[in-house]
Write a structure and sequence with these properties.
Layout lengths: L2 H32 L4 H16 L1 E9 L5 E8 L7 E3 L3 H9 L3 E3 L17 E7 L4 E10 L7 H43 L8 H15 L4 H12 L10 H5 L6 H7 L2 H8 L7 H8 L20 H15 L11 H10 L7 H13 L5
Helix pairs in contact: 1-4, 2-4, 5-6, 5-11, 5-13, 6-10, 6-11, 9-10, 10-11, 11-12
Bound molecules: fe (ii) ion (FE2).
The site of fe (ii) ion has 6 residues, from loops.
């Protein structure tokens, strides 16, 4: 082989290697960043990657509707109407879905796409495929550096679509499992609450209050979900408290009080084997701690896990505004005043601030 041919060959091989490496590192990065994200999070991330990797101005993730007859925009950026939908057999998008192959177009306005895509100068479509079925498509348009899309662009968008398909399918599966788990937990809590008329609805209310306060504090979606689980399960340990004590009309004796105070420990004990639940279980275990360290375990301030501190405020608000066998409910005004007095003593002051904002936002007093 001549030297010039060799050089050419080597250059091509290096280019090929560089392109394979780019594709591989993209796949690796995506599998890392997409795992554990919500479906919305995955879509946003895919758009970011498509825009930066392919260098385009416009990108959209389309989902195939459950009825299989329509594609709708799930997430988009750039020159794309976020309400865009495509009925079956409407232009090139559906061709790409049906053939499960990418599609490139350089003269969008002159070809048949359905009118909605005609504002794009160039277009590249890649179907997103799960294990068994097509989930939708990724569309990118208006390449920055040139008029056309090249084979490397198709390969890279293909890699993004491949990883997106897997991640979205996993996220669906995760969501289904989570719903199943939540359903089971709710039934368990309802069964527990059905044993005493005093506790009916307490858990669902505390869960709502805690999540609202968490959102007010700017918690991310994952923390809010943990807060939901922790709240739903916070009194599960009462399953071990004798019913006579739970329903007692008069003041509790010292022994009875000691018995009922064990429920956070018992709750944590019941859930001990759920390894993924560590933070959730800590929220339950410490939900009766006091900010000043005078609670059951003597944890003080930020030593008390965050979920437990929020739960404590939500729990107190519901308990004080509900009838109990040994006392009638307090008015919301009195309860809020009392909780403000105990800010920095029983409750985390920052959480009381968020609680007061929540009270204001929802006009809870009226
Ligand atoms: Fe409790």
């Amino acid at each position: 082989m001549e030297r010039s041919n060799l050089e050419q060959d080597l250059n091509l091989t290096i280019q090929e290697l560089a392109s394979v490496y780019e594709e591989l590192s993209l796949l690796y990065r995506l599998s890392e960043v997409l795992s554990g994200l919500s479906i919305e999070g995955i879509c946003k991330r895919i758009i970011d990657e498509a825009i930066n990797t392919i260098e385009v101005k416009t990108a959209a993730v389309l989902f195939l509707h459950d009825n299989g007859e329509e594609l709708y925009t799930k997430s988009s950026r750039g020159n794309w109407d976020s309400n865009l939908r495509f009925k079956q057999d409407d232009g090139v998008l559906w061709n790409s879905i049906k053939t499960q192959k990418p599609y490139v177009s350089h003269n969008v306005s002159e070809s048949k796409h359905g009118n909605s895509l005609s504002s794009l100068k160039s277009l590249l479509i890649c179907p997103m495929i799960g294990k068994n079925k097509v989930l939708g498509a990724i569309v990118v348009g208006d390449k920055v550096s040139s008029e056309n899309f090249y084979s490397n662009d198709i390969k890279l968008l293909g890699a993004i679509a491949f990883q997106a398909g897997l991640s979205i399918e996993n996220a669906y599966l995760y969501r289904e499992l989570e719903e199943l788990l939540l359903g089971t937990i709710r039934s368990l809590v309802r069964a527990l609450e059905a044993t005493s008329k005093w506790s009916a609805g307490h858990t669902e209310r505390v869960t709502k209050y805690a999540m609202d306060i968490g959102k007010e504090m700017g918690f991310d979606a994952e923390t809010i979900e943990k807060l939901r689980m922790s709240s739903l399960l916070h009194d599960i340990g009462k399953i071990g408290t004798p019913k006579e004590i739970l329903d007692k009309a008069g003041k509790l004796t010292k022994e009875e009080y000691k018995e009922i105070s064990k429920h956070p420990i018992m709750g944590a004990e019941i859930l001990r084997d759920l390894k993924q639940f560590t933070e959730i279980v800590e929220g339950i275990k410490y939900h009766h701690e006091h900010w000043d360290g005078s609670g059951l375990f003597g944890l003080k301030g930020e030593q008390i896990p965050l979920l437990a501190r929020v739960l404590s405020v939500a729990d107190a608000f519901d308990a004080m505004t509900s009838d109990r066998p040994y006392r009638p409910r307090k008015s919301k005004e009195d309860t809020i005043r009392e909780m403000m007095e105990f800010s920095g003593i029983q409750f985390d002051p920052l959480i009381i601030e968020a609680f007061l904002r929540w009270v204001d936002t929802f006009n809870l007093l009226y």
